[in-house]
TrEMBL record:
MF terms in GO: G protein-coupled receptor activity
Gene3D superfamilies: 3.40.50.2300, GPCR, family 3, nine cysteines domain
Keyword Transferase part of the UniProt annotation: no
Protein name as it appears in the record: Taste receptor type 1 member 1-like
Principal localisation: membrane
Highest taxon listed in the record's lineage: Eukaryota
Subcellular location: Cell membrane
Pfam family, one: 7tm_3
Matching InterPro entries: ANF_lig-bd_rcpt (IPR001828), GPCR_3 (IPR000337), GPCR_3_9-Cys_dom (IPR011500), GPCR_3_9-Cys_sf (IPR038550), GPCR_3_C (IPR017978), GPCR_3_Ca_sens_rcpt-rel (IPR000068), Peripla_BP_I (IPR028082)
GO terms for biological process, alphabetical: sensory perception of taste
């Protein structure tokens, strides 16, 4: 009797509890049309590999609060649609949801969604027996990639809320796969934009070692290929990762920017390890899979790790969801193992409070909400729903449900509400200063040395920071320049004071030669004029005047005609002058020496007018040299940029090939003249014709030696003035030291300008050499 009363009491207690128990499961809801749902309510963080296929009980794995929240959002969305009078009126939606905690060991639930029975021997192979019209899920790229082909076979729409891998963009392989999540391409683009905005180039990329993370890594490497961003370190993370080794390598390479491309269950141990290992002053870039994590900001010491930049899809508050959670969690659901055909439809989440669910990471919540509504709208269209009713006579198969989705865009946000007061640079190498080009130092383009660009070059950091570009010939730059400046063009204008003085000197020379010619013409038959050369004097004076024309073309902006006239008159007519002095000095030697010792040679010279023959040959030869040389290699203007880095000195380029013959002829005549005149150094003291010629030649040689020395040491614009001065000095050397003394004798010492005086000098010299 005692045991009967106890049993009766226990039975009464059980019946009372059963009366309070809601017989339906959170994972199932009956309806006219069923939606499938795949959520990783639990996470299999340490999968055990078996020799043969084996299903697992997800309820024994750690609970994921954020995934449970998404699971509840699907339930809420379906309930909201069922209560709606506008969307699917008089049609009810149901669902069959599975806890998809593993990508390889939760297939029984997938097969259950595909058909009414797991195994249908003798069934009709062509009849669509799918109990669902669409699937929402799964939770990760790897999970989705594993199960998607099973649904694609029957074109069952699979609307995903979290699988961001780029492989799902291949419509030809996954024709009925859609997603409401931002794809990895867009996420990587946001990351790169952040890096470029803050000029961060030396970064680490940590990714979860599965499809989602590997895809992100590949996209990131491809995206930064043509940018200044360098991937200094990358590592895949899993449950066996040694975080201390990772952070040692990051510190060793001086990396300050860490991109964390992982799920929340991988981000949590990573960040906690960073706190424990005292990793500080880093910039962490959190992707949308964990940027809204609610646990990490509460971790002690989280602020010491640095600044965390996170971004996610735009947050949308879903009205009524909190009330639904309060209502749902207040009920007690019967979750007896015997009640269900399949495992993984048991939550074991009684430890979760309402506040825990509401405060969980809201990532991908609106994506789930949008996915359910997208399917509902597609079904609404397929059933031709109108005002207050739907056509229930239409048989709807999954491939008839045409779902359209619009993924949300990403927003930037600060996970820890930190703002960068001072943006860290954290490069492998400090940025080169202005005027410095980068030189690669190692395998990464972000590691480089800085070399200053030399004079005449510059670096354009926006176009090519690794190359010093040569300036144009008309430009110049100092060492370490970022641009070139135009060179200053310099030449001697006619208004230059030095040029005016020299041109006045040349004009005076012409006047003096004219005056001397008149004086010599008046005293033509006097001994002084006859001994100076007689008619040859007028030829020399005329050629000296013509030579002075060259001086006027050393000034002003050079042109081809200016360059020709700068050299041609001097070379041609100075040749005649030197030829005249050669024969004149030769005649002096003949008169006083050869006439006595070689009378026949002297008579031949007199008979055939040897002096005019030599002058004519010299003139014609020089004229031919100049004609040939100027025909093929005429002098032309050129810009001398070698002497000054910031100036262009305008001058005339006298080609060596065109002028070599003329110069050799001039040197030959000068040498002969000097030899003959030197031979007459012991002539009568008062008869100093040879001595005067020798002295003129010494002045001539000294003048051009001085000019050549200056030309070697100085190439500025005043070299043209000095060249003109050397030419003028060459003309004045003969005019002043040969002709001027004779003019002085004619004017002031007329007693020496008599036949008796000259005969006396000759007789005395003849007696001297005969003795």
């Amino acid at each position: 009797m005692k045991y009967f009363l106890v049993s009766l009491c226990l039975l009464e207690t059980f019946l009372h509890a059963l009366a309070q128990c809601v017989p339906a499961s959170e994972f199932q809801l009956e309806g006219d049309y069923l939606l499938g749902g795949l959520f990783n309510v639990h996470h299999d963080s340490d999968p055990v590999y078996h020799d043969r296929p084996e299903a697992i009980d997800c309820s024994s794995k750690p609970l994921v609060n954020s995934s449970y929240r998404r699971f509840q959002l699907m339930r809420f969305s379906v309930e909201e649609i069922n209560n709606s009078t506008n969307l699917l009126p008089n049609v009810s939606l149901g669902y069959e949801i599975f806890d998809h905690c593993s990508d390889t060991q939760t297939f029984p639930g997938i097969f259950n969604l595909k058909s009414d029975d797991l195994i249908q021997p003798g069934g009709e192979p062509h009849k669509n027996r799918s109990k669902i019209i669409a699937v929402v899920g799964a939770s990760t790229s790897t999970h989705s990639l594993t199960v998607a082909p099973l649904f694609m076979m029957d074109l069952i729409p699979m609307v995903n809320y979290a699988a961001a891998s780029s492989v799902f963009s291949r419509i030809q392989n996954l024709p009925s796969f859609l997603r409401t999540v931002t794809p990895n391409q867009d996420t990587i683009e946001v990351i790169v934009n952040i890096l470029q905005h803050y000029n961060w180039r030396w970064v680490a990329f940590l990714y979860i070692d599965e499809d989602y993370g590997k895809d992100g890594q590949e996209l990131f490497i491809k995206r930064i290929k043509d940018t200044e961003i360098c991937l200094a370190y990358t590592k895949g993370l899993n449950q066996y990762t040694d975080y201390s080794q990772i952070f040692k390598q990051i510190e060793a390479q001086g990396i300050g920017i860490i991109i964390v491309f992982v799920h929340e269950w991988t981000a949590e141990p990573l960040i906690k390890s960073a706190i424990q290992l005292n990793v500080t002053n880093k910039v962490w870039i959190a992707v949308n899979t964990w940027s809204l994590n609610k646990k990490l900001p509460k971790e002690k010491g989280i602020k010491n790790i640095g600044t965390v930049i996170g971004f996610s899809e735009s947050e949308v508050t879903i009205p009524g969801f909190s009330d639904f959670i309060y209502s749902s969690r207040s009920m007690t659901h019967c979750e007896n193992a015997e009640q269900f055909v399949f495992c993984n439809q048991v939550c074991n989440c009684s430890s979760l409070s309402v506040e825990d669910v509401i405060a969980a990471d809201p990532s991908f919540n609106f994506n789930v909400y949008s996915a359910v509504y997208a399917i509902a709208h597609a079904l609404h269209n397929a059933l031709q729903c109108g005002s207050g009713s739907c056509n229930r006579n239409i048989t709807v198969y999954p491939h008839m449900v045409s779902v359209t989705v619009f993924p949300l865009s990403c927003t930037f946000m600060w996970l820890l509400n930190h703002f960068l007061v001072q943006v860290p640079t954290l490069p492998c190498s400090p940025e080169c200063g202005g005027g410095y080009a980068k030189k690669y130092n190692g395998i990464h383009k972000c590691c480089f040395d800085c070399e200053i660009c030399p004079t005449g070059t510059y670096v354009n950091s926006t176009e090519d920071p690794y190359k010093c570009i040569n300036c144009k010939e008309t430009e110049w730059s100092a060492a370490g320049s970022t641009s070139c400046n135009l060179r200053v063009v310099e030449y001697i204008p006619f208004t230059d004071s030095g040029a005016i003085l020299i041109m006045v000197g040349a004009s005076a020379l012409v006047g003096l030669t004219l005056a001397m010619s008149v004086l010599f013409a008046i005293n033509y038959n006097t001994p002084v004029v006859r001994s100076a050369g007689g008619p040859m004097c007028f030829l020399i004076l005329g050629c000296l005047s013509l030579c002075s024309l060259s001086i006027f073309f050393y000034f002003g902006k050079p042109t081809i005609s200016f360059c020709i006239l700068r050299f041609l008159p001097f070379l041609l007519f100075y040749t005649v002058c030197l030829a005249c002095f050669v024969v004149r000095s030769f005649q002096i030697v003949c008169i006083f020496k050869m006439a006595a010792k070689f009378p026949k040679l002297h008579s031949w010279w007199i008979k055939y007018h040897g002096q005019w023959l030599v002058i004519t040959v010299a003139f014609v030869t020089q004229a031919l040299f100049l004609l040939i040389g100027y025909t093929y290699f005429p002098p032309k203007p050129y810009d001398d940029i070698s002497w000054y880095p910031d100036k262009i000195i305008l001058g005339c380029d006298m080609n060596v090939k065109s002028s070599s013959g003329s110069v050799v002829l001039l040197l030959s005549l000068c040498s002969l003249c000097f030899i003959f005149s030197y031979m007459g150094k012991d002539l009568p003291k008062n008869y100093n014709e040879a001595k005067a010629i020798t002295f003129c030649l010494l002045l001539l040689i000294l003048t051009w030696i001085m000019f050549a020395t200056v030309y070697i040491l100085y190439r500025g614009k005043y070299i043209q003035t000095l060249n003109a001065l050397a030419v003028l000095s060459s003309l004045y050397s003969f005019l002043l030291w040969y002709f001027l003394p004779k003019c002085y004798i004619i004017i002031f010492q007329s007693y020496k300008n008599t036949q008796e005086y000259f005969k006396g000098l000759i007789q005395n010299y003849t007696k001297t050499i005969s003795q």
